[in-house]
Amino acid sequence: MPESAEEKAAERSARAQANRSYLELARRSLTEESARHEVTEGGVTRRLLVTRRGVGPIATPFAGEFFMFDFEVDDQWRKYSVLFKGEIDQHLRPKHEPELPLLLRIDSGCETGQVFHDTSCECGAQMHRALELINESGQGLLISIPRQDGRGMGLPFKLATLTVQTEMGLDTVRAAALLDPQGERDKRTYSGAIAVLMFLGFSPPLEILLLTNNELKHAIFPENGYDATLNPFSTSVTSEVRLHLEAKKRDLGHHIDLYDSETDANQDAHNHNEGRENE
């Protein structure tokens, strides 16, 4: 049955009201909002200023739709980006069921791997896999710290290590040590990520399932009252990335499954065929 004139008018009115609400929400997102949050890391407590600069929906080709938040924190990394899976309220805050654990990934930036898809590291694949897992859970978020390239040593240093790795056949840890023998192997800090988490309303006590292979990322959570469980996860181990992952597992203590879905699977097939030929 065709819609009546009254029904069509009601539909137009509802659509116009919805559009006004969306426009108001978009305008509200352009107004920066700031708050200070007290965070402890390595026994040192700081009050960090967190500023939300923008928020809006994005659609990814590999992990569905998210809300993206643009943040600035007054620490050494400055810029933080958040991808949140779920709904937000009229105040642009994520909605979360507090009785459910929060699936969380803190993702250090890697311009070579995540932006330009360099095959010598797993950073791009790891970010995509984390977003897939968050999407599958229906609720969670990824906090990206774009300026933590090279385990916090910066993009110029990272590029220099890639020259050493490529031309001398060394892994990421040994290349860094050769360039800076007395330097730290990992300069990253995560107090800014905790401050962003608090700004978004995810305050302790809260159960967190932390998507990481790196125990250093886990240490800050109990310091700040969170009940966080380490949830290592794997990506495909290709021949290009194996040396890199072996170094992270051996020298940095990362929890990495080195089963190679490419090489090892081919070797399994080769061994199976050899067995058949020898029957």
Folded structure, characterized:
- There is one protein chain.
- With 279 residues, the protein is α/β, with parallel strands linked by helices.
- It has one domain (32-270): GTP cyclohydrolase II (Rossmann fold, 3-Layer(aba) Sandwich), CATH 3.40.50.
- The chain contains 10 helices and 8 strands.
- The chain has helices spanning 5-29, 111-115, 123-137, 155-168, 172-179, 191-199, 215-218, 220-223, 242-252, 263-277, and strands spanning 33-41, 44-60, 64-73, 79-85, 102-108, 140-145, 207-211, 227-231.
- An 8-stranded mixed beta sheet has the order 1-2-3-4-6-5-7-8.
- Strand 2 (44-60) and strand 3 (64-73) form a beta hairpin.
- Helix 4 crosses helix 5.
- It is globular, with a radius of gyration of 23 Å.
Low-confidence runs: 261-279
Shape label:
globular
Strand order of the largest sheet: 1-2-3-4-6-5-7-8
H and E string: HEEEEEHHEHHHEHHEHH
Strand content: 15-25%
The value of Rg in angstroms is 23 Å
Total number of helices = 10
As a percent range, the share of helical residues equals: 25-40%
Q: What number of structural domains do the residues give? A: 1
Nutshell version of this structure?
By secondary structure, the chain is of the alpha/beta class.
